[in-house]
Amino acid sequence: MAGQEKDRRGRTISRRGFSVMEYILLFLVVVGGLVLMRHYLQNTVQGRFKDAGDMIGFGYQQ
After folding, report:
1. Bridge partners of residue 13, in order along the sequence
2. What is the rounded CA–CA span in Å between residue 43 and residue 56?
3. Relative to the CA of 15, which of 31, 44, 47, 55 has its CA 20 to 30 Å away?
């Protein structure tokens, strides 16, 4: 059958199942990377807002 193979013990396994598992793993790796980078991205955005505020207020705070 197309899309099916036999493992070492002779059991039939589905290649489509492995394909779905690979996509799920890829999705989890990407989401995990974004979660780990969240702190750096948040600091970057806050730094840009601070720079913009300093330019408007000429660096002075009241």
Report:
1. 5
2. 20
3. 31
Query: What amino acid is encoded at 62 in this protein?
Result: Q
* pLDDT tens digits for range 13-53: 666 767 888 999 999 999 999 999 999 999 999 999 998 88
Question: Does pTM surpass 0.70?
Answer: no
24's tokens: 């799920």
Residues spanned by the domain of 53: 5-59
Q: Reply yes or no on whether the pLDDT at 10 is more than 90.
A: no
Number of domains in the chain: 1
CA–CA distance, 27 with 20 (Å, rounded to integer): 11
Contact 13, 4 (CB under 8 A): yes
